[in-house]
Design a protein that fits this description.
The chain has 262 residues and is mainly α. It has 9 helices and no strands. The chain is globular, with a radius of gyration of 23 Å. The relative contact order is 0.10.
Length: 262
């Protein structure tokens, strides 16, 4: 059932997001036609530079729209499907509450990652010039080769840890929003305002926990040893996973036992 929920969620959100991502990539290609391959600035000679200015402006607007729309959809899908009128239908389905939350969380995380990848790809398209890809690959290869000679296999572990940390932080950020919305919905009045307040309080609690735990390991960073950096990254990942699990449990409890759709 979880797979079906995710499939439905992807279909519903893809209708708006995929055309937006496609538009961003197309606009980056159009901008590239005016920028050229030498990265020496936009070509303003064609029709007084109006097409170049318009295409660049459209690209910037679309880039902002990708970020904003993705964020809004993450909030809207959870709020409308589970806490508004659609919640009556969702709660009649033979599916556990945690599966509803998980489907929203997974899809939101995927789209967040895709939006970042698409944005980076569009920037690479605009920054592309002949031979630049090969130069970048050579530089990266040299960095890893020299890093391996100096610090060993850790040079490969750190990027992996950073990727995992980025993924976990995305999940933590999303479930924080979901939990805040759920807590705010418990209020009899001004639910949206209460959700904002809950979000601020949750972040204060998270920052306090991190502030208490992190100093115990700060001394490990003295000397900037690679092993210490590995350890601190691992610690941050573990803390983020624990916080995400805790917020997920709170969100699940509220929707399962305290849900009020009135």
């Amino acid at each position: 059932m979880l797979r079906k929920l995710m499939k439905y969620e992807f279909k519903s959100t893809a209708r708006l997001l995929l055309p937006l991502y496609g538009a961003l990539l197309v606009l980056s290609l159009i901008c590239k036609l005016f920028i050229g391959t030498n990265l020496d600035g936009a070509n303003m000679s064609f029709l007084g530079g109006i097409p170049a200015k318009l295409s660049i402006a459209a690209y910037v607007i679309t880039m902002v729209a990708v970020i904003i729309v993705t964020f809004i959809i993450i909030i809207q899908r959870f709020y409308k499907n589970l806490l508004c009128d659609e919640g009556y239908l969702m709660n009649t389905l033979p599916v556990s509450v945690w599966k509803n939350i998980t489907s929203k969380l997974v899809v939101a995380t995927v789209w967040s990652i895709v939006s970042v990848v698409v944005a980076m790809l569009s920037i690479l398209i605009m920054a592309y010039s002949p031979g630049v890809i090969n130069e970048i690959m050579v530089e990266i290869s040299q960095i890893f080769s020299e890093g391996y000679d100096q610090i060993g296999v850790s040079v490969y572990i750190i990027p992996i840890e950073l990727i995992i940390l980025g993924l976990v932080q995305t999940i933590l950020g999303t479930i924080t929003i979901y939990t805040a919305i759920s807590l705010g919905h418990l209020a009899n009045r001004r639910k949206i305002l209460s959700s904002f307040g809950a979000y601020i309080v949750i972040n204060m609690i998270i920052n306090t926990i991190v502030g208490i735990v992190t100093p115990m390991f700060v001394t490990a960073l003295e000397g900037e040893s690679i092993s210490s950096i590995n350890g601190c990254l691992t610690l941050v990942i573990i803390i983020s996973v624990v916080l995400s699990a805790g917020l997920f449990a709170v969100c699940n409890y509220i929707l399962k036992n305290k849900l009020n759709l009135e």
